[in-house]
Amino acid sequence: MTKVQASEDKDYVQSLVRGLEVIRTFSRYKPRMTLTEVAQQTGMTRAAARRFLLTLVREEYAETDGKYFALRPKVLDLGFAYLSSLPMWEVAQPVMRDVVNALQESCSLAVLDGLDIVYVARVPTERVMTIGLSIGSRLPAYCSSMGRTLLAGLPPAELAAYYDRVKVERRTERTVANMVALKDAIEASRRQGWTLVDQELEMGLRSIAVPVRNRRAEVLAALNVSTHEGRTSIEAMKTRFLPVLLDAAQRISAALPQ
Q: Residue 196's pLDDT is what?
């Protein structure tokens, strides 16, 4: 929805949207900000930003020392409400721990949100990426193994809409750099039922992903394992990692409510 459309929609609550913008302004890189910084980041006036910040403070979603503002743990309730509503979340955690124990590599679960994937569960070992990942982290769908797995599971109309919106950019020298190659890669993921991405998101990083489906065979999420290219060959990922992931995805799917 564009800003013009939003302004013309009587059911669109602009103040709620702006309050959420204030919350999203905070990050691991900017955990504490002044009123001026929040106003600049959101494009609001200082007066508007001040009202939203003080409301968050009053409702205990944020705190201030008089100069700097920061989020409080209560804000996690907003995200946990979504996670707790996912039927696979509690089911997936023990299965993912089994994957980590078997392969000694980090295991993640993600869903598609617009052009990105969003991590909804993660069991880490040592960090193999320079990008810090945790629940709620977002990555581009087009160059990640879970992203391509999720895109491969979309109905044709939704996938076509994605292609119309996405802008393919090189993250590394190996990143798929044009739409023809991307479409071929996603079609290959659809045909084979899994996705392996080799150093397209970050140099040195390899990952392999499989879909998690519901009882109607619809793709709900993607499950992956990431490793360093110096530690695990592509062939080993196919012969050793893939069977473990496929079994884990099947276990998660089988445990989901009908």
A: 98
